[in-house]
Amino acid sequence: MSIDRQGMNAREGFKIIIFTLTVSVLLTLVLLGAFASSFPDAVTAFFVRPLTNRYFFGNLLAAAIPLMIAGLGIAFAFSSSNFNLGGEGQIYAGALAAVLAARAGGTNQLAIQMLALLAASMTGAVLGGLSGLLKRYLRVDELLSSFLVSGITVYSVDFFIAGPLRDTSSNFMTTAAIPANSAFQKIYPPSNLSTALFLALAAVIAGKFIMDRTRIGFELKIAGANREFAQYAGIGASASTILPMVLSGALHGLAGGILIFGTYFKAMRGFSAGIGWSAIAVSLIAKNNPLGLVPAAFFYAYLEAGSKSVMLGANISSEIVLIIQSAVLILITATRVPLARLFSGRKKYKKEGKR
Amino acid sequence: MSSAFSAILSNAVAGMTPLLLAAMGGLFTELAGSLNIALEGLMLMGAFSGIVAAHLSASPALGVLTGLAATALVAWVYGKITIGLKANIFITGLAVNIFAAGLTAVLSQQFFKTKSVLAFSLAEPARPFAQLAALPFVGPILFGHTWFVYLAWILAFAGWVILFKSTYGMRLRATGSNPKALIILGKNPETYAAQSIVISGLYCALAGMSLSFPLSAFVPNISAGRGWVALVAIYLGAKKPAAIAAACFVFALAESYSNFAQGSLKIPSEFILAIPYIVTLLALISGALARRLADRK
Question: How far is residue A254's CA from residue A67's CA, in Å, rounded to a whole number?
């Protein structure tokens, strides 16, 4: 099947976004009409309360933070045709590493934060890098290997949280908390929104700069567009496979660490489940453009906040958001406009490899 | 010990059933040139719609038919959007997985007021060769299973015949390897690609129901990564049905052994749950190593 490679112009892109928003709002209304006990209450709870209620609005913004950072990790991987499906494990393990590092000692708030976030990023980087190495030297498909490594990681972290690292004074399956004064500053009480928001925005801007203005970013994009050409251009296979997977893993790990320092303060069993998959969706909606991650992450977080809000009053499962999110994913791609450029890159690579 | 040994093998034979069905379904899409990551979600759809319909109609047969139809419908829409609208199959596949998890939870909450286990009191699926289970050694391993197990073998064989021995299969495979040849024949590759997705939906529906019917229950995320393992089995089996079946059996054996080990050895349950992933990863790596050594010669 030929994949149309022409670029999308801004006006077409705008039309698609308007179309997607309209249809997803309509779909939400239909779902609320079908499942909610009181339709007007449910509509208010879904669409209005996340924006007007201070607690919900702050948490909405807070929920967008890990989506932006992990989404940036996906953008680096996908734009260079590396398919990191291991985000779930990388985030979870990064969070656990952050807790361990933060509890290792020290009194200086900044030092604890730096060390813990470094530990979180390194953990993610090792997990992502493993799939990069396997792809580079053994031609193991990173899409499959990163998913499998992630599965192993999630169960292993589960084990540590429920076993050796469990806080036995708590009734929940959780580690002990990081030192109270080491967390990020809350900026919008009573919500969970913290200064991590600025960190996420800075990361996204830095990501944009790296992708568009540096040699590394340029090489990654060339490798993503056409791997054979990248080889002729002298871009090493390591630079185009291992580096993006390491970077992607590191950003996922960082997102996990930031979850700890911004919102949760301790690693609870399964607390980050689903964020990795959401980050993939956010990055796909943003078409792997770092700046696009900001609105995409807020939109995604808005849908999630709405469904949590509607669950409280209207006796409706919060998983309604999954149905809406899947529709958004499909709508944003189900157009004759090619968003699939990165996949043509993938196919080229496959042909070149002996399988 | 020998009874434990035969119990492990027997559980492995039963456990490979959903993997084999999902992998054979995935093989159709794979050979038609698309990477189908939605096996997981399609299995979930089949497991849920089949058992719920069986409960509501009080007829397992009607349940199976409904499960097939509902999953085929989702697969048809998935194929329509992917092939017809030229959407990226990776994204639409991800969407199907998310959709299936969401829809099963929402419907479960709506109609049964719970998002956790839905237990029904359906009769156990028939065990067509139960009389032969008394045979020494092979009896309990091969013949004590539900009809899903034998249907899976039949359908795996049928899949091989269709894909590799029929004109239809040849054309479907050409969709992936040489679509221009099909166009010259006056056939539309997109038709075959879309049909391969519906076929994979039917296989996955049975894979899902082979999990929920013997339990007479739907458990959230009942597919538990098996759709992904099936995808790996397709690659490990180099897209050949017999080798894929062997790969599925190895995973099932690993799972069955780890369940057994959980009882006798003191291994934490989390690591037991991780064993299928570990074995799959190791198999993927050793396959790649073997290929690399073969290339060097």
Answer: 11
Is A5's pLDDT higher than 60?
no
B133–chain A nearest CA distance, Å? 36
Query: What's the pLDDT tens digit per position in A19-28?
Result: 778 888 899 9
Fold of B2-113+143-296: ABC transporter involved in vitamin B12 uptake, BtuC (1.10.3470)
Task: Please give the pLDDT value at position B141.
Answer: 80
Q: Which residue of A has its CA nearest to B109?
A: A317
Domain ranges of chain B: 2-113+143-296
Question: What average pLDDT values come out for chain B (297 residues) when binned by 10 residues?
Answer: 80 94 97 92 97 94 97 94 81 90 90 86 85 79 88 96 96 92 90 95 97 93 88 89 94 86 77 81 87 80
Give me the residue from B98, B268, B278 closest to A325, CB to CB: B98
| Contacting B residues, span 70-89, partner chain A, CB-CB under 8 Å | 81, 85-88
B277 vs A149: CA distance, rounded Å? 8
Strand-pair category, B118-119 with B217-218: antiparallel
Q: What is the pLDDT of residue B203?
A: 98
B140 within 8 A of B6, measured Cβ to Cβ: yes
User: Which of B189, B271, B284 is the closest to A144 by Cβ?
Assistant: B284
Q: For residue B219, how far is the Cα from the chain centroid? A: 16
Residue A291 has pLDDT above 90, yes or no: yes
Q: Inter-chain contact A323–B295, Cβ cutoff 8 Å?
A: no
Interface touch A138/B289, C-beta < 8 Å = yes
Residue A204 confidence (pLDDT): 97
Nearest to B106 among A317, A335, A354 (CB): A317
pLDDT at A336 over 60: no
Minimum Cα–Cα distance from B111: chain A residue:
A35
CATH number assigned to the domain covering A10-352:
1.10.3470
Question: Which tens digits make up the pLDDT trace of A234-246?
Answer: 777 777 889 999 9
Closest chain B C-alpha to A320 CA, distance in angstroms: 6
Provide φ and ψ at B33, rounded to 5°: 95, 10
Domain chopping of chain A, boundaries: 10-352
Alpha-carbon distances, residue A52 vs A47, A63, A65, B72, B236 (angstroms)? 10, 16, 20, 42, 53
Contact A1 B190 (CB under 8 A): yes
Q: Residue A333's closest chain B neighbor by CA?
A: B87
| Distance separating alpha carbons of residues B268 and A288, to the nearest angstrom | 39
Query: Number of A:B CB contacts under 8 A?
Result: 144
Phi/psi of residue B119, each to 5°? -100, 130
Contact call for residues B234 and B26 (beta carbons, < 8 A):
yes
Contact A29, A46 (CB under 8 A): no
Task: State the nearest Cα–Cα gap between A352 and chain B, in angstroms.
Answer: 14
ipTM over 0.95: no
Return the residue of A nearest to B79 by Cα. A334
Q: Which of A4, A162, A330 sits opposite B92 (nearest CB)?
A: A330
pLDDT at A258: 97
Task: Test B288 with A138 for CB contact under 8 angstroms.
Answer: yes
Q: Within A139-234, where are the H helices? A: 142-162, 196-213, 215-225, 227-232
